[in-house]
Write a structure and sequence with these properties.
It contains 18 helices and no strands. The protein is mostly helical and 417 residues long. 46% of the residues are buried.
Length: 417
């Protein structure tokens, strides 16, 4: 009971947030709803900012130490290659599932939705103007490690940390004092994770309560066909991921899911898979994944392996085309899939990245970008499932790479340690 206290507290906060938020929504007082949602959302903002505060030092220290201990470029390349094979395969499958589900259910056909979020559209399109395939390299290669840390550009941090870790390993025994120092810093940051996670129930309460107070639950009925088709796609994606996970790690899969459950609940409640990065690191180590592989694979996964978001991108893009009655043949849809496969890797760290990529892709294929307004009202609820799926996908990927490397501890080995 004590071990799962945080998870129970988060679930309780989520239920309480829904009850309080709905009671505020039913008051039908616009001033009260606006004031309440604006203020209570601060709890979620504080929690997410606390997590973001420790992501950069955690990624840098754990990744550098992990690579330095791996010892050579060949080992790094081998593990990185296996991770990238999983990431791109999972991304392709996720995009295909979104493509198949939106064509099967056709949720946009004959739909006339009047609910629009003008401010949300302006926010997304403003970011879209800054995004193009040409700046893909800029999202990968940092011009300043300090800028990358300040803006939590995980992919740029990974690039710098890889170079730093390889250089450190190349120095041999001379580098041991610095490696040991960084390892101590990593342990300090992980200790901070425990303290930050104590505030998670408050963050969850604030996030859920604010959105229910503003939107209510009626929005789910308005978008029932769209939301139902999306959930069906997520379920199919989960079945595929869990099936492949079982093929790789076998009968320990239920144990892994139990270990990831708390992180998935936090991601679901706060609509932020980034918010659970530090906790997910600890969960995977407790499961028995090699700490060096976790430190190397997980940051890469947060840039290349967001399965839930990938599935949503094809689903949302073609849904908007359906609403506007734009026919896209199979060849065009597959081209769109490949564009999404590439362009999605260039927006790591961009807020509402999925919508930014959807808007950019719609513009490329002659689909009205304003169609984003049609999915914004329901996007928060979809984002809850996307975020939880992202956590599941990265947890499975890291466990799989550990297994392939022969570095996944068995239950007996964990007991002995």
């Amino acid at each position: 009971m004590k071990k799962n206290l945080l998870t129970y507290s988060i679930i309780g906060a989520m239920v309480l947030g829904m009850i309080v938020g709905f009671s505020i929504f039913k008051s039908e007082d616009p001033e009260l709803i606006s004031a309440y949602s604006g203020n209570i959302k601060l709890l979620a903002t504080i929690f997410i900012r606390l997590v973001q505060m420790i992501i950069a030092p955690l990624v840098f220290c754990t990744l550098v130490v992990g690579i330095a201990k791996l010892g050579n470029v060949r080992t790094v390349s081998r593990i990185g290659g296996k991770a990238m094979i999983w990431f791109f395969s999972a991304s392709l499958v996720s995009l295909l599932i979104g493509l198949v589900m939106v064509n099967f259910y056709e949720p946009g056909m004959g739909m006339n939705l009047s609910s629009e979020d003008a401010a949300g559209v302006a926010d997304v399109t403003a970011k879209t103007k800054q995004f193009s395939l040409l700046n893909f390299v800029e999202h990968i290669v940092p011009k300043s490690v300090f800028e990358a840390m300040a803006t939590n550009e995980i992919l740029q941090l990974v690039v710098f940390s890889i170079f730093f870790g390889i250089a450190l390993a190349g120095l041999g025994p001379t580098a041991l004092p610095l490696i040991n120092a960084l390892e101590i810093v990593a342990h300090v940051v992980l200790k901070m994770v425990g303290y930050v996670m104590m505030t998670a129930p408050l963050g969850v309460f604030g996030a859920i309560s604010a959105v229910i107070a503003t939107r209510g639950l009626d929005i789910l009925l308005t978008y029932a066909k769209y939301f139902g088709a999306f959930i069906a796609g997520i379920l199919v994606l989960w079945m595929v991921l869990l099936f492949v996970g079982y093929l790789v790690i076998g009968k320990r899969l239920p144990e892994l899911i139990r270990g990831l459950f708390g992180s998935m609940v936090i991601a679901f409640s706060t609509t932020s898979s980034e918010a659970v990065f530090p906790k997910l690191t600890e969960d995977l180590k407790k499961f028995g994944c090699n700490d060096r592989i976790v430190s190397f694979t997980l940051p890469l996964g947060y840039s290349f392996n967001l399965d839930g978001s990938m599935m949503y991108m094809t689903f949302a893009s073609i849904f908007i085309a359906q609403v506007y009655g734009i026919e896209l043949d199979l060849g065009t849809q597959l081209t769109m899939l490949l564009v999404l496969m590439l362009s999605s890797k260039g927006v790591a760290g961009v807020p509402r990245a999925s919508l930014v990529v959807v808007a950019a892709t719609c513009g490329m294929f002659g689909i009205p970008v304003e169609g984003i307004a049609l999915i914004l009202p329901i996007d928060h609820f979809c984002d809850m499932f996307r975020s939880a799926t992202n956590v599941l996908g990265n947890g499975l990927a890291t466990a799989a790479v550990s297994k392939w490397e022969g570095e996944l501890q068995t239950v007996e080995e964990k007991v002995l340690i």
